[in-house]
């Protein structure tokens, strides 16, 4: 079975694609897209991998679910298409970047510019039914994306993992802290950010400091 994913990932993920759970997942997703409105568009489901090749991964940001409103999700966690109004979590991300680095708040919420610099923007679940948050959870996506994290963990070194909020922090058990760096904080959603768990984490300057230490090119956030 052929999955529409960048060729750099295929040798590392081919075993996953052949597993029963993944074949069942593909069947589920096809039925959902046939019978309901789902996001992101079919051709953008694997955008996180298509915009950030395996060799270029330097930073991993883990989200939970794609946005479930029309025209929002583009296959990259926290990202929206160019002309779409910025959701609250993304607003808080950009505000923290502004406070941390003095970078002006951008007009576009499309984070593919980060992905192309080596930031893997990975949702744990890659698809969702319109207006139904979490509707595609526990169908196999989490097994697949956990495998992605474990492959990056085992085959690469000095990756910076950004784990925001309780759900992402659970992934810490998949990461070898002696090989990689892990930065954790509250989630950028208003609920968490307004309680003081997000703003001031300085994750964007800290990430660049770590990349400098590893002699890797920093990210233009």
UniProtKB/TrEMBL annotation:
Record organism: Hyunsoonleella pacifica
SUPFAM superfamilies, A to Z: Uracil-DNA glycosylase-like
Cell location: Cytoplasm
Keyword DNA repair carried by entry: yes
Ranges for domain Uracil-DNA glycosylase-like: 50-211
Gene3D superfamilies: Uracil-DNA glycosylase-like domain
GO cellular component: cytoplasm
Keywords noted in UniProt: Cytoplasm, DNA damage, DNA repair, Glycosidase, Hydrolase
Family: Belongs to the uracil-DNA glycosylase (UDG) superfamily. UNG family.
HAMAP family membership: UDG
Protein name per UniProt: Uracil-DNA glycosylase
Role played: Excises uracil residues from the DNA which can arise as a result of misincorporation of dUMP residues by DNA polymerase or due to deamination of cytosine.
EC main group: hydrolase
UniProt GO BP: base-excision repair, AP site formation via deaminated base removal
Molecular-function annotations in GO: uracil DNA N-glycosylase activity
Catalytic activity: Hydrolyzes single-stranded DNA or mismatched double-stranded DNA and polynucleotides, releasing free uracil
Main localization (coarse): cytoplasm
InterPro entries listed in its UniProt record: UDG_fam1, Ura-DNA_Glyclase_AS, Uracil-DNA_glycosylase-like, Uracil-DNA_glycosylase-like_sf
């Amino acid at each position: 079975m052929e999955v529409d994913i960048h060729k750099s990932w295929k040798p590392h993920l081919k075993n996953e694609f052949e597993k029963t759970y993944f074949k069942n997942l593909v069947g589920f997703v096809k039925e959902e897209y046939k019978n309901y409105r789902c996001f992101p568009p079919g051709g953008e489901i694997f955008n996180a991998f298509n915009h950030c090749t395996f060799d270029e991964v330097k930073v991993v940001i883990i989200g939970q679910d794609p946005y479930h409103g029309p025209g929002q999700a583009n296959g990259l966690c926290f990202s929206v298409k160019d002309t779409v109004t910025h959701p609250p979590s993304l607003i808080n991300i950009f505000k923290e970047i502004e406070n941390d680095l003095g970078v002006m708040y951008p007009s576009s919420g499309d984070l593919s510019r980060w992905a192309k610099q080596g930031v893997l923007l990975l949702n744990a679940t890659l698809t969702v039914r319109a207006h139904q948050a979490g509707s595609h959870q526990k169908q196999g996506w989490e097994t697949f994306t956990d495998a992605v994290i474990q492959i990056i963990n085992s085959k690469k070194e000095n990756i910076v993992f950004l784990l925001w909020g309780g759900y992402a922090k659970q992934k810490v058990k998949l990461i070898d802290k002696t090989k990689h760096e892990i930065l954790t904080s509250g989630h950028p959603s208003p609920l968490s950010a307004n309680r003081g768990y997000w703003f001031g984490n300085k994750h964007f300057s800290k990430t660049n400091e770590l990349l400098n230490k590893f002699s890797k090119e920093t990210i233009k956030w």
